[in-house]
Design a protein that fits this description.
The protein has a 4-stranded mixed beta sheet with strand order 4-3-5-6, with helices on both faces. It has a two-stranded antiparallel ribbon with strand order 1-2. It is of the alpha+beta class. A hairpin with a 5-residue loop joins strand 1 and strand 2. Helix content is 37%, strand content 16%. The protein has one domain: Glutaredoxin. The longest helix has 22 residues. The relative contact order is 0.18.
């Protein structure tokens, strides 16, 4: 009888570990995900295979919105080396991204001359989070606590690290992690 209890306990433990993977789907790499594009249609992250991705949930009316300048600078400086800055507008924190995709895109272009790729507006936290963000949380234990939270994903589609909203795009810490990922 004790063998049955052990088998049931083992099954339940494995089931509980598998539930977080199921929440994010069967994806094992960031390249397995698609996001809606800010321009309409789908954006497959598979197009970024071999490139390092800096994934950032953004908002137009946040105290950290000025980080768009640093993100654009990183994009301009490092894109030829293989860095992709990918903006993910979200209204999850303080309702600081209330506009439509068209309004968000216009805001970013007019105010910050943004030309790095951006997704459509997504939910990035909680039960309603996009599967990519659920997967990132399962893989790293990190999830956005506020706007401009950043995930660094290597060229193989594996999460490397994450950075809080307070970490500026030009910080030594972030640059060191990006440079290390680009060399691999």
């Amino acid at each position: 009888m004790s063998k049955n209890y052990i088998a049931i306990f083992t099954f339940l433990v494995l089931l509980s570990f598998g539930s977080s993977a199921q929440a994010a789907g069967t994806q094992s790499r960031a390249h397995d995900f698609n996001l809606p594009s800010i321009d309409g249609g789908d954006m497959s992250l598979a197009q970024f295979k071999g490139k390092t991705i800096l994934l950032v949930n953004t908002a137009s009316y946040c105290g950290f919105t000025k980080q768009y300048d640093g993100l654009q600078s990183l994009w301009e400086e490092k894109r030829d080396d293989g860095l992709v800055v990918l903006g993910v507008p979200s209204n999850d924190f303080g309702e600081q991204e209330p506009g439509s995709e068209g309004q968000i895109k216009e805001f970013c272009q007019v105010n910050f001359n943004i030309d790095f790729p951006m997704s459509g507006k997504l939910v990035v936290k909680g039960e309603g989070a996009h599967p990519l963000y659920k997967w990132l949380k399962a893989e790293t234990g990190g999830s956005p606590k506020w706007n401009f939270y950043k995930f660094l994903i290597d060229g193989e589609g594996r999460p490397v690290t994450y950075f809080s909203s307070m970490t500026k795009p030009g910080s030594k810490k972030m640059r060191k992690a990006i440079d290390a990922s680009l060399k691999n």
